[in-house]
Amino acid sequence: MNPEDWRRGLADAWTSVATFVPKFLAFLVILLAGWLLAKLLRKGVDALLERVGFDRWVERGGVGRMLASSRYDASGLIAAIVYYAVLLVTLQISFSVFGPNPVSALLTAIVAWLPKAAVAIVIVVIAAAIASAVKDIVSSALSRLSYGGTLATIAYVFILGLGVIAALNQIEVATAVTTPVLIAFLATVTGILVVGVGGGLIRPMRQRWEGWLTRAELEAKVVRTQAAIYDRERRDAQPTPDVNATQEIRQPAGHQSRPGQA
């Protein structure tokens, strides 16, 4: 190899190093600044959510019970999500210094998906809160009925299921996940109805329906009785007017009772 080739090779190597080092330094600076910003935002979001009572709100919705075995509470979980989201954005910006590359493309796709995940989490939390409130209302209103707790649980699961389906739709996995499950559920129910109710289980189902209707009539009588008792207790609790005081008020001011008149 002649000296000219050596000089050209050294010049190319030096050019590559001189081009890479500033980019690498910029990568480290951006990464450090993003990491510090992520830590500050994590502490700030955690403190803000605890101050506004986000944990108590989540506890009412039942999500807090799901996080009981976790090392995060609700506000800490949201703060951790913000922390890692900022880190992902930082990594995306950092790797973009080196130009187009597969890592930057992957991080860009993940960062573009993060807002959808955040909205899905909010949907689940709100649905859980609404489902818990409806469950409390239904269970309180039907507390004297034997099936009140069952109806409250069904309402809770139904509303929470709608929230989960909406969240899956938000993150664009509803079609791939919920549709097969829904089709399998409907096919199972249809098969049971066709084979069971339309076949040999007609007489047992008829007996069950008669029992359910009889029980519903008894429960309706109980509800009417309880409503009548409540109305009577409310009327008894109202203060009765004093008859003597009413007569004295109606008596004219200049009227005097005659002697011997009671």
Q: Note the total helix count.
A: 9
Please give the share of residues in helix: over 70%
Q: What order do the SSEs take from the amino end to the carboxyl end, as H and E?
A: HHHHHHHHH
Summed over residues and divided by their number, the pLDDT gives a mean of 75
What kind of oligomer do you see?
single chain
The end-to-end span amounts to 142 Å
Weakly predicted, low-confidence segments: none
The major β-sheet equals:
none
Beta-strand segment tally:
0
* Classification by helices and strands: mainly alpha
**Approximate strand percentage:** under 5%
Taken from the alpha-carbon principal axes, the silhouette is elongated
Q: Report Rg.
A: 36 Å
Search tags:
262 residues, mainly alpha, 9 helices, 83% helix
